[in-house]
């Protein structure tokens, strides 16, 4: 892969090649995507998921975050931490 085209899409393509035919599909409810762009995700879906993914532009730490999902992230933030206090989170 002299011109590194394999890496243009990140680490997923090499990972898929590495683990080809050795993985099993997971039910889509295991990993809930879209918490940074899709306001129609239900709290039931989120509650039943093992992983929630804030992909999209409206990350929960930004002012533009979707308010209905923001608490999913903020409940884990240690506001007493000096580094957190130094950040300009839209909290």
Model description:
By secondary structure, the chain is mainly alpha-helical. It contains four helices and two strands; from the N terminus they run H-E-H-E-H-H. The protein has helices at residues 12-18, 43-47, 67-74, 82-86, and strands at residues 31-32, 51-52. A two-stranded parallel sheet has the order 1-2. The longest helix has 8 residues, at 67-74.
Keywords:
91 residues; mainly alpha; two-stranded parallel ribbon; extended; 4 helices
Topology at a glance:
Blueprint: H1 12-18, E1 31-32, H2 43-47, E2 51-52, H3 67-74, H4 82-86
Parallel strand pairs: 1-2
The DSSP helix count reads: 4
Give the strand content.
under 5%
Please state the average pLDDT score.
86
User: Helix share of residues?
Assistant: 25-40%
Number of strands: 2
Main sheet characteristics: 2 strands, parallel
Spans where pLDDT lies below 50 across 5 or more residues: none
Shape: extended
Taking all Cα atoms into account, the compactness measure Rg is: 17 Å
Span between N and C termini? Answer: 44 Å
Order of helices and strands: HEHEHH
Kindly name the structural category.
Answer: mainly alpha
Short synopsis of the structure:
27% of the residues lie in helices and 4% in strands.
């Amino acid at each position: 892969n002299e011109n590194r085209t394999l890496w243009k899409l990140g680490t997923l393509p090499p990972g898929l090649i590495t683990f080809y035919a050795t993985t099993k599909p997971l039910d889509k409810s295991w990993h809930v995507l879209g918490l940074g762009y899709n306001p129609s995700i239900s709290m039931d879906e989120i509650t039943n998921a093992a992983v929630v993914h804030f992909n999209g532009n409206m990350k929960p730490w930004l002012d533009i975050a979707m308010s209905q999902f923001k608490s999913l992230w903020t409940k884990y933030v240690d506001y007493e931490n000096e580094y957190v206090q130094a950040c300009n989170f839209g909290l």
